DNA sequence: TTAAAAGTATACCTTGTAAGTTTACTTTAA
DNA sequence: TTAAAGTAAACTTACAAGGTATACTTTTAA
């Protein structure tokens, strides 16, 4: 019941990018050093994030990576999905054949786990990288936003 | 981000015992056949449950296993803890040294994951085996219980 | 026009854990 | 005193996690 190390690295890499001035491009090298992630391993993870459309990559001299959209529009769930694929807290939630009781209608364990998983997914979705970065480095002026909360951060929306 | 197969087997084994008349002792053999769990592997799991005080084991001829307390007092969390040990959805929640930012005060990812984990644990705690068994085979008379819900089953208490 | 700095693609390696099995032993009822 | 149960712990096998290496492509700038 644990996240991959790669997912953890991905969280930290995206958070790092989210804390830069918007649009800033940095090389993998810099992220790796700053976050203490093995360089070649990080490159592999960054490719997953690129494929998922979470970051852009720029090749060639002066290349690097930048967020593909505003931090507020990237959730922990997005990053998880990009790195680990779909969340499945139990074998039987992935592959119905793996359920001895052949799925939810007859399997109370299955039903309970499905509900727990649903809540878990919602939780991961409720954190975005604007909130994690703790106020953007270039704060959006309050007037441009609706009154009240700008974005959710954790459980309560 | 997945439960062990052993934990899943444990859920099913305990549920099976919970569905028997209270106090009934059955051999591992029977549980294994009924739930489609490899016999010797199940024995290993049952020993963990015994050590955790969730089931009793009876040795010798005519021996077997039975629940050590009423199903309503056994939660999914109890069984998980017995089989997998403490829930830690990220390395850094187990071992602070694994957090490059040295723990929650300076690490927003850490803080978010800790909160998600807390909710997850509460979820697993909110399911007991009376509710999973779907009404005990020998139903407790309504008069002995307070009005309203007898026990929680899932999210809402 | 080519060298160097970046990312890409893919194959590989190494270690740990999951999942299950085996062997030898102990307890207990009949 | 034997056979049916559980106990204990070592062993095996397979797969996945985590990380590395090799060869390649793209791009900029001298």
From TrEMBL, chains A, B:
<dbReference type="InterPro" id="IPR030489">
    <property type="entry name" value="TR_Rrf2-type_CS"/>
</dbReference>
<protein>
    <submittedName>
        <fullName>Transcriptional regulator, BadM/Rrf2 family</fullName>
    </submittedName>
</protein>
<dbReference type="InterPro" id="IPR036388">
    <property type="entry name" value="WH-like_DNA-bd_sf"/>
</dbReference>
<dbReference type="GO" id="GO:0005829">
    <property type="term" value="C:cytosol"/>
</dbReference>
<dbReference type="InterPro" id="IPR036390">
    <property type="entry name" value="WH_DNA-bd_sf"/>
</dbReference>
<dbReference type="GO" id="GO:0003700">
    <property type="term" value="F:DNA-binding transcription factor activity"/>
</dbReference>
<dbReference type="InterPro" id="IPR000944">
    <property type="entry name" value="Tscrpt_reg_Rrf2"/>
</dbReference>
<dbReference type="Pfam" id="PF02082">
    <property type="entry name" value="Rrf2"/>
</dbReference>
